[in-house]
UniProtKB/TrEMBL annotation:
Catalyzes the removal of elemental sulfur and selenium atoms from L-cysteine, L-cystine, L-selenocysteine, and L-selenocystine to produce L-alanine. Its EC number is 2.8.1.7. Its cofactor is pyridoxal 5'-phosphate. Residues 26-395 form the Aminotransferase class V domain. This is Probable cysteine desulfurase. The keyword Secreted does not apply. Belongs to the class-V pyridoxal-phosphate-dependent aminotransferase family. Csd subfamily. It comes from Pontibacter actiniarum. GO terms for molecular function: cysteine desulfurase activity; pyridoxal phosphate binding; transaminase activity. It catalyses: (sulfur carrier)-H + L-cysteine = (sulfur carrier)-SH + L-alanine. The keyword Transferase applies. GO terms for biological process: cysteine metabolic process.
Length: 407
């Protein structure tokens, strides 16, 4: 892997040249959403200024051009995650909708009273609540694979839970709060050993490392465009053909049908079976530009660059007196949660903000993790390849100041 030229790359992101409160923006809230390179903004602008049109049914030039550009993005996604078939790539609004789709449709087809679904102790609410809803609807039980104090899943415990009641495992690849990179490939192997399919929430993985659905042998994989330098409002559900064929459609409407009469409707083939209504066309095209951008940098190079920055940040934060990391897994990606002495995360976040430093505070949509540690929330600094060691030095200095002010 090659180290990326960060100073050069930063100029691709207009917002990184801006200031807040008269100070250069230090953006360390990348797990919530990443900033967008000009190429993404430009691609969306081009669509609206040059070929804005609805897709899939148009006879005219603009519609055909828009359809071709949008469908080309499906091809880019297929290549990016190495899906075997193009029609295994379903466009959604984002990770949340992707997981809701599977919970709803897989649930209707396969969940019965007495069945169970397994999630992990470190899931985002969007990988908990849809399963709770499906379980409630079908009389099934939601079970939780436990973790240790370091924020690592207990694989042996997980393996023991894989009994004949389990219909599906849904697990996050990377924890947005703890930064833990879970051994999803091993977990999938274990689950498949019992004939159980696995959904991988890749919302915090796809932007940090190469993700290969065939290598993982994932049955479903979900992610959001806006966390991988693309627009909001667009995301992906990858599903193995054999599952997408078997489960019923999600929403009804245009595009997802073959023929409609008042008596009977026949559904469209994959992937359109799951894509009712006019999609987020501009956003899809923006996602395509984001994928081009990432592939140009190289995901392995991004992973290497971020690993070095993560190591630098972890070491620098260790120097802060009274700082306690929440999540100390051996294998981590770019999210770092911590608490400083007895200070409240929100107070620290507010002081950092006044220095132009954007971090997130609170439960990060993972309340069960907060309950596990018995804490109200954390301060979370989440990194992207465009962050610099100088920015980390500013973060550390500002935390020192906050600690002094608040003690
Ligand atoms: N899962 C994880 C691990 C996440 O970090 C997030 C976003 N914070 C989501 C799911 C939900 O993603 P979205 O809000 O883009 O649908």
């Amino acid at each position: 892997a090659r180290k990326l030229d960060i100073a050069q790359l930063r100029s691709d992101f207009p917002i990184l040249q801006t200031q807040v409160y008269g100070k250069p923006l230090v953006y360390l809230d990348n797990a919530a959403t990443t900033q967008k390179p000009s190429a993404v903004i430009q691609a969306m602008n081009d669509y609206y200024t040059q070929y804005n049109s609805n897709i899939h049914r148009g006879v005219h030039y603009l519609s055909q051009k828009a359809t071709a550009e949008y469908e080309l993005v499906r091809k880019k996604v297929q290549g990016f995650i190495n899906a075997e078939h193009l029609h295994e790539v379903i466009f959604t609004k984002g990770t949340t909708e992707s997981i809701n789709l599977v919970a709803s449709c897989f649930g209707r087809k396969f969940l019965r009273p007495g069945n169970s679904i397994i999630v992990s102790a470190m899931e985002h609410h969007s990988n908990i609540v849809p399963w709770q809803m499906a379980c409630e609807e079908h009389g099934a039980e939601l079970r939780v694979a436990p973790m240790n104090e370091k924020g690592e899943l207990l694989l042996e415990e997980f393996e023991r839970m894989l009994d004949e009641t389990v219909k599906l495992v849904s697990v996050t690849y990377v924890s947005n709060t703890l930064g833990t990179v879970n051994p999803v490939k091993e977990m999938i192997e274990l689950a498949h050993g019992q004939g159980i399919p696995v959904l991988v929430d890749a919302a915090q993985a796809i932007q940090h490392m190469p993700v290969d659905v065939q290598e993982l042998d994932a049955d479903f994989l979900a992610f959001s465009g806006h966390k991988m330098y693309g627009p909001t409002g667009i995301g992906v559900l990858y599903g193995k053909e054999k599952w997408l064929q078997q489960i019923p459609p999600y929403q009804g409407g245009g595009d997802m049908i073959k023929t409609v009469t008042f008596e009977k409707t026949t559904y469209n083939d994959l992937p359109l079976k799951f894509e009712a209504g006019t999609p987020a066309i501009a956003e899809g095209i923006g996602l395509g530009a984001a994928i081009d951008y990432l592939q140009h940098l190289g995901m392995a190079n991004i992973a290497e660059t971020e690993a070095q920055l993560l190591a630098y940040t972890t070491e620098a934060l260790q120097e802060v007196k009274g700082l306690r990391f929440i999540g100390e897994a051996e294998s981590k990606a770019a999210s770092i949660s911590f608490l400083v002495g007895n200070t409240h995360p929100f107070d620290v976040g507010e002081i950092l903000d006044k220095h132009g430093i954007a971090v997130r505070t609170g439960h990060h949509c993972t309340e069960p993790i907060m309950h596990y540690y018995g804490i109200p929330g954390t301060v979370r600094a989440s990194l992207a390849f465009y962050n610099t060691t100088e920015e980390i030095d500013k973060l550390v200095a500002a935390i020192q100041k906050a600690a002094m002010l608040l003690s």
